[in-house]
Amino acid sequence: MSAEKECKPGPSCPNGVYVYDFEKKTWRLEEKLPFKENGYYVIYFDNSSCPACRKFDQEWFSFVESLDPPRPTPIVVLCDWFAKLCTSEYAKKLFEVFDVHISPTVFFMIRENGKITRMFKHEGLLDKEKLVFLHRAFKEFANEDAPQQPSR
């Protein structure tokens, strides 16, 4: 993989959609939308020109690196300034579809049978402790809210 496609998301990286690879401990710039598969996703909407995002970065990256299996898929959607200033069509589209107008914004999301079935949105700064709390609470809620399998 080229160095251009691996970059820890932030102001020095190109706009785009980044997915964390736990095995390689790297962030990979995706050339397609990353939500094709069912699963649990945690998505950080980041703006290169956002001072609050730079403060949040250290909390976010520490949170991602501390996740234990089974893990969600961590994603960073990076633009310069929301959908208004974004050189990535994929990132711009996600800012629009998820209606993001405050940064940082974090989504906790479950996708099942090709559809988003559960989602929680937080706008504004969080520390790592609160990210961990929201992650655990969302997982618990998602499990309680999941359709029950019929007994045999």
TrEMBL record:
Q: Which domain of life is it from?
A: Archaea
Can you name this protein?
Thioredoxin domain-containing protein
What organism does the record attribute this protein to? Thermofilum adornatum
